[in-house]
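Format notes (please read before filing issues)

Several people have asked whether sequences and structure tokens are stored in separate files. They are not. Every record keeps both together, in the order shown below: the sequence lines, then the token lines. Line labels are part of the format and must not be stripped during preprocessing.
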Amino acid sequence: MRPLEYLLLFQCIILGLAVGDLARSLHRLLTAGARVKWDWLAPLAALMILVKIANHWWRWYGLEAIAGELTFGLFLAVLAATLLLYLISADVLPDEVPTGPIDLREHYRSVSRRLWILFVANGAFVIVINAWASIHVEGSRFPLFSADNLIPPAALSLLVIRARWWHAALLLALSGYYVAQFLGRTLAG
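Then the structure lines:
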């Protein structure tokens, strides 16, 4: 087994659990039917995190050189970033469907602070991993002007700015960013 396959296997288990949690939570909401008071921010956040999970896996598939040079310390950073994706996916939609009504607007409001703190932490780990890869594997300097470096400050703004339109705009922008990074690309290159 090549180093990348070894790394991806472990990541795929965690990422698969994250996608499974999203699917299970959505299924519970759909099964609850009329008891759900739908609001668009929680499902939009769920869609964004699903795209981010796919982006995370797709990005690592193309990093064969990095996997071979990965130190245990950096592997722990990759593991932390992956576990944070799981925690974000577990927060974004309600886990349990009570017997009474389910208000998705209230759910998003109640979890958004924790959700965005986890998202900032994930973004910080991604910056560290990207910097290490740039310096140690590619032989270049820290990627100061990378769009990935803008994600933690953007997520921090969601902790400060409570306006729903801002949350919607940033969720759409993040979803678009994660899709655009690999749109039209194949795993072969």
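For reference, the curators noted about this record: The chain has a mean pLDDT of 89. The radius of gyration is 17 Å.
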